[in-house]
Amino acid sequence: RAPLAILCGITLQALLLGHGGVSSIGVNAAVQSLAALAAWGLYRLLRASTSPYLRNAMLALAALAWASCLL
């Protein structure tokens, strides 16, 4: 469901606001959909994990990745 919602949002953004243009709808939708699907897979991995060490390691890795974006 997320890729369809992303595609609708990007299409409305391109048509109503002119941001990004109509020619980049496919690329933008693909890039954002891949990130959404990766987040879903990570969520399922963390949810299925019974090891608190794996969950803590994944949380620390996510926090480190987020903090690196701030630099």
> Number of DSSP strands?
0
Order of helices and strands: HHH
Gap between N and C termini, in Å?
33 Å
Q: Largest beta sheet, briefly?
A: none
**Low-pLDDT runs:** none
Strand content: under 5%
The shape, in one word, is: elongated
Summed over residues and divided by their number, the pLDDT gives a mean of 86
Indicate the radius of gyration in whole angstroms.
Answer: 16 Å
By helix and strand content, what is the structural category? mainly alpha
**Oligomeric state of the chains in view:** single chain
Helical proportion, percent range: over 70%
Number of helices: 3
Please give a structural write-up.
It contains three helices and no strands. It is mostly helical and 71 residues long. α1 runs antiparallel to α2. The mean pLDDT is 86.
